[in-house]
Amino acid sequence: MKLSYKKLWKLLIDKDMKKKDLCEIASVSSTSLAKMRRNENVNTDILVKICEALNCDISAIAEIVDKEE
To answer: What is the rounded distance in angstroms from the CA atom of residue 53 to the CA atom of residue 50?
Structure first.
């Protein structure tokens, strides 16, 4: 099992936001978003900041998927 952030990228498209916009409003680094783009681990504080900025629950930005996906 691994964590996937595909939901986050879809949400940004739906909100017509760029990753740079998210970095600014959530006060997270572009390095953190790059890690998320590669489905790597990030600190939960970063996930909380993103959820607060987008006014959503963590299930709206991430999900656990099988490793084969």
So the answer is: 5
Check residue 69 and give its pLDDT. 54
In angstroms, the CA 67 to CA 20 distance is: 28
Name the token pair of 28.
Answer: 């997270």
22-67: pLDDT as tens digits: 999 999 999 999 999 999 989 999 999 999 999 999 999 999 998 8
Question: What are the DSSP calls for 3-32, one per residue?
Answer: EE-HHHHHHHHHTT--HHHHHHHHT--HHH
Question: Would you put residue 39 in left (φ > 0), alpha (ψ -120 to 50) or beta?
Answer: left
pLDDT of 18 above 70: yes
